[in-house]
Amino acid sequence: MATVGILGGTGPAGRGVALRLASAGHDVVIGSRDAERATTTVNAMDVRGGTVVGASNEEAASCELVVVATPWDSAIATVTSLRGPLAAKTVVSMVNALAREGREMVPLYPPRGSMAAQIAFALPDSTIVGAFHHLPASMMQDHDSGLEADVIIFSDSDVARTQVASLVDQMPGLRAVIAGSMSLASAIEAFTAVAASINIRHRVHSYVKIAGL
Ligand SMILES: NC(=O)c1ccc[n+]([C@@H]2O[C@H](COP(=O)([O-])OP(=O)(O)OC[C@H]3O[C@@H](n4cnc5c(N)ncnc54)[C@H](OP(=O)(O)O)[C@@H]3O)[C@@H](O)[C@H]2O)c1
Fold first, then answer.
1. Assigned CATH topology for domain 3-202
2. Mean pLDDT of the chain, nearest integer
3. Looking at ligand 1, which atom is closest to the CA of residue 13?
4. Where in the chain are the domains?
5. Burial per residue of 195-208, b for 16 or more beta-carbon CB atoms within 10 angstroms, e otherwise
6. What pLDDT does residue 2 have?
7. Which atom of ligand 1 is nearest to the CA of 72?
């Protein structure tokens, strides 16, 4: 069983991933800029299976595998400050760069085309994998939501994306779908804007399922 750290894990996205990793029997460290806030957050969570503890982002970064779950505009500063502890590790980005315009979410394109590529540039000694971008956090946090979603995974490292896929397949309600390399990151992240706009328009929590697999 892996110990997974989540940077910015106190938000709904990080909490959802943490709960389902714990349900699969893994131990999770929810990181925060304020370890006390992380502990308070964890105390309010309905954790089943493995353990979830609250800690600083530094402690979360010391785990075997680390997920980045901060808002897009703070992700690069957060990972850059943790470059040392994140070196030689698999770092999973679930970060989407989006902006709200009226009743739509629109994708923003960072200079390198995607947040995963920006994180890869900021962490030259880590292996970056993209995953969890399209998951509705509210359904991830509810053990009884009936979520049955696909998680589209990309990385330039076959070993790392297979490692993350195997973790995802253990998480209740999720199926891993490896899409390919980092060259797909821009399209995969941007598609979150489509899903989020559908959610706003139709007042739902939709999620991605790939047919025909
Ligand atoms: N929400 C979803 O349904 C969903 C689904 C898939 C992917 N995502 C992606 O996952 C990421 C997190 O989403 P979220 O909705 O959980 O976001 P969020 O609640 O806005 O932020 C998550 C955490 O990031 C930390 N944070 C906030 N501002 C920060 C800053 N300036 N510097 C460092 N840390 C900061 C906060 O933790 P502390 O204050 O405790 O440090 C906060 O609890 C986003 O990139 C989003 O695109 C979200």
1. Rossmann fold (3.40.50)
2. 97
3. 16
4. 3-202
5. bbbeeeeeeebbbb
6. 79
7. 45
